[in-house]
Each structure stands twice: as structure tokens, then as C-alpha cells.
Amino acid sequence: MDLCDHRGQVLTHTEKAWASITFAGTRHSLALLFAGDEAVEAGERFVAELPDHEFAIAGQLVADAGVSEVEHRMVPDPRLLVQCELLLLEDA
Predict the structure, then answer these.
(1) What fold is seen in the domain 2-90?
(2) What confidence score (pLDDT) does residue 92 get?
(3) pTM of this prediction?
(4) Residue ranges per domain, the chain?
(5) Which of 13, 32, 46, 92 suits 2 as a labelling partner, its CA being 20 to 30 A distant?
């Protein structure tokens, strides 16, 4: 939420275990809503910055972070809906 100045609202969050031969972790899917002019601007920055953001999560490595879908609506009020995916690996 720091990445979007705490202007987004988490609508949904799902977590699914993930593993390969060498790594274990979780895949997270989120839907975030940004409502209002300032929130939409923060959401647009979030979309631009998420894939290259350096995360600092204790005990976790963010192996992948990306935006899978973005929906803009201007009527009746400005809003931005963002779907994103993150793959977190356990940092041993």
C-alpha cells in the first residue's frame, strides 16, 4: 500500500501455495480499487512502478510482480480497477 500512497482499497486477495523443485512460496492475486481523482493518479503510479519495485518483506523474496488488468472509468466518478499478481518465495 506504500507504493500507492495508501489510496487503494483491496477488493479481493487470494493466496495459493506454489512450489518448484528448488523453491517454495505463494502466488497472490489482488484486485485494487482507486476511487477519486487523487486515488486514480496514485493507482496509475502503482501500475507503472509495480513491476520494477524493490520489495522489503521479511522472510520473503518477491520473484515476480505484475499488473494483469487495468480498467479506467470516468463516469459517474473517476475510478481505476487494477488486477495484479505477485509470486513470493520463502527466503531461507
Answers:
(1) STM4215-like (3.30.2000)
(2) 66
(3) 0.88
(4) 2-90
(5) 92
